Amino acid sequence: MADPVFFVPASEPTLAEIAALTGARLAEGADGERRISGVAPLDLATQSDLTFIDSPRYLPLLAETRAAACFVGPKHVGAVPSGVVSLESPRPHDAYVAVLRLMFPEALRPQALFAPGISPGAHVHPDARLEADVTVEPGAVVGAGVEIGRGSVIGPGAVIGPGVRIGRDSHIGAGTTVIHALLGNRVILHPGVRIGQDGFGYLMSGKGHAKVPQIGRVVIQDDVEIGASTTIDRGANRDTIIGEGTKIDNQVQIGHNVQIGRHCVIVAQVGISGSATLGDFVVIGGQAGVNGHVVIGTGAQVAATASVKDDLAAGGRYGGAPARPIKEWYREELALRRLAQRAVAPSKDDEGREG
To answer: Active site located where (predicted)?
Structure first.
């Protein structure tokens, strides 16, 4: 079986070009015209590859690397082995990412699977309005009154419900459904995302549960990226909003009426209950849960697996269940560990009886 390569470099920059791009300091006497044709981790890099090191734990790998060049912090320049060109940078990983973005631009967003344009196998309602250079791939369905901006791609099997608006240069992944929603420019929805379905709302009683009509929308602003199999419910009586530049990982659940600010980061398997509000630049770690109607202030960071049941102040760091300031949580965890260690330690009387 052939071993396919899915990402081929779009360019082979010289070391001088890499130094100019990143602001890194090229080792004295290095050949600035030497070209880099690939990137790789320290242990896999070959004589045409660029690599990086940003932690002392990887110094043994640095000593053995066969890379052409390595981004390295000022403290570890002297550890770069002979034959490897050092590119000194205060933030080696950031510099490495800048080169990745230059060499592999196709990896920055999903690519269309078929030829550009409207596939004969797609179903586009005659009342839909598509600007030039829109691609609709086989099996996709675009409903009545939909508007899609220039350069956007609707992947295979995706369903775009009636009246949905999608901006320019957006990508709707394979098998995704988008209903009752407005999407901005450069939005990326990875495969299997579900946008705009009913929020979970019922009037519960001893006779049964009466469904509450969910009549709001989902509004997704520019430059949002949403991971595979994430679900975002439409609002019940107001819009569910995902702010500009926010990045959401795979398998996240966002309930109705949730308001998420700009440039937030929400990691895998987080659940955010209805009517919660997140300020700008909030970070929530994996598998954390957020109760309904709580407010998380701008810049707050919530640790993985935390349970947020009350409002959190802006700029704080929180962890635990229930979530509380992270230093307080650490102290409590340490105290519990010490108590547990004392409880299991045998006493002198116990030792004597065992003898």
So the answer is: 256 (proton acceptor)
Q: What is the CATH number of the domain that holds 158?
A: 2.160.10.10
Model pLDDT for residues 52-101, shown as the tens digit of each residue: 999 999 999 999 999 999 999 999 999 999 999 999 999 999 999 999 99
Task: Residue 34: give its domain's CATH number.
Answer: 3.40.1390.10
Mean pLDDT (the chain) is: 95
Residue 286 domain flag: yes
pLDDT tens digits along 160-201: 999 999 999 999 999 999 999 999 999 999 999 999 999 999
Alpha-carbon distances of 93 from 88, 108, 145, 217, rounded to whole Å: 11, 17, 45, 39
Whether 340 is in a domain gets the answer no
Please give the residue range of the domain that contains residue 296: 123-327
The whole-number pLDDT of residue 269 equals 98
Give the β-pairing of 202-205 and 208-211: antiparallel
List CB contacts of 45: < 8 A, sequence separation 6 or more. 39, 51, 65, 66, 67, 68
In this predicted structure, the answer to whether residue 354 has a pLDDT above a threshold of 60 is: no
136 located within any domain: yes
Which residues, listed in sequence order, are joined to residue 231 by a DSSP beta bridge? 194, 253
DSSP 312: B
- What CA dihedral angle connects 325, 330, 332 and 335, to 10 degrees? -160
**Quick one: 38 and 154 in the same domain?**
no
Q: Are residues 69 and 139 in the same domain?
A: no
- Give the pair of three-digit tokens for residue 271: 């659940």
Query: CA 38, CA 49: separation in Å to the nearest integer?
Result: 5
Per-residue confidence band for 3, with pLDDT thresholds at 50, 70 and 90: confident
The better pLDDT of the pair 195, 344 is held by: 195
Domain count for the chain? 2
- The CB-based long-range contact list for 74-81 (8 Å cut-off, 24+ gap) reads 80/27
| Whether 303 and 158 share a structural domain | yes
In contact, 281 and 297? CB cutoff 8 Å: no
Same domain, 134 and 265: yes
The catalytic residues are 256
| Residue finishing a domain among 77, 108, 139 | 108
